[in-house]
Amino acid sequence: MDATAIDDVLDTRPQRFRAVVGVVLIALACGLGAWVFFRGPSPFAVDVWWNQLFVAAPSEPLYVFALAMDTVGGHVTAVLIVPLLGALALFLSRRQWSALYFLTASVGSALLVQVLKHTFGRARPEDILILSDYGSFPSGHAANAATIAVVAAVLFPRAWVRIVGIVWVVLMAFSRTYLHAHWLSDTVGGALVGAGAALVLAAVFSRLRARDEDRLTIRRARQETLRGADAGEAASS
User: Fold this and answer.
1) pLDDT score at 227
2) What is the pLDDT of residues 152-183, one digit of tens each?
3) Is 134 left (phi over 0), alpha (psi -120 to 50) or beta?
4) How does DSSP assign 13-73, residue by residue?
5) How far is CA 168 from CA 40, 42, 80, 106, 107, in A?
6) Residue 161 belongs to what H/E stretch?
7) What's this model's pTM, rounded to 2 decimal places?
8) Would you give the DSSP letter of residue 127?
9) 68: nearest Cα among 184, 172, 180, 189
């Protein structure tokens, strides 16, 4: 990353914007959860409509896909394995503070999901096809997917990274509703929580992450200087 990119990381304006957007997204998730709670046990009309699209016997390929997403996007895989492997990869690439950001965002998102689950206590759809834990709102799988997508977009600001992240969140939301593990609004709430937590912590870690980029820039400059010196010696010999 060059000096301009480092300045972008340090610029307080985009970081404040990220923090504000993150807080707004979390507030929207809490507002949606409160709406769910105070309106009673009946789901939204859109939840019922979406759920009824998959009431027939599930397609075998889609069912297997949804089960795979269930394993990858939750349980020990998403809560422990993916964050640790991602943080390890960032650490080995000399992005120590980025690794800590990823871990903190993953833990923060998961904790916030559990707080909201136990606060609102929404029942899952009765036709659920898998075993799951307490609380339907918000979807922890969707929150995990959104956290990873936003963290990746923050650390690697490329258009294709954002597109892949969006597709990942959408597929995760689809798989959760296909298995009737969540109502559609649960996955929306989960995505809001995960994205919001990742954005708020991106702002918190912005200056620390800039240290990683500064070290990488200095390291690349030294390597280029050494390559230039070696080329000069080869030309003179």
Assistant:
1) 55
2) 999 999 999 999 999 999 999 999 999 999 99
3) beta
4) HHHHHHHHHHHHHHHHHHHHHHHHHHH-SSPPHHHHHHHHTT-SPPPHHHHHHHHHHHHHH
5) 31, 29, 19, 16, 19
6) helix 159-178
7) 0.84
8) T
9) 172
CA 139 → CA 135, 187, 215, distances in Å? 9, 5, 38
**Would you say 43 and 183 are in contact if contact means Cβ atoms under 8 Å apart?**
yes
Tracing tokens 């307080």 back to the chain, one arrives at 12
- Rounded Cα distance between 45 and 54, Å, is 15
Residue 94 host element (H or E): none
Vertex 149 angle, CA 13 and 187, to 5°:
110
Is 95 in a helix, a strand, or coil?
coil
| Least confident window among 62-66, 145-149, 172-176, 221-225 | 221-225
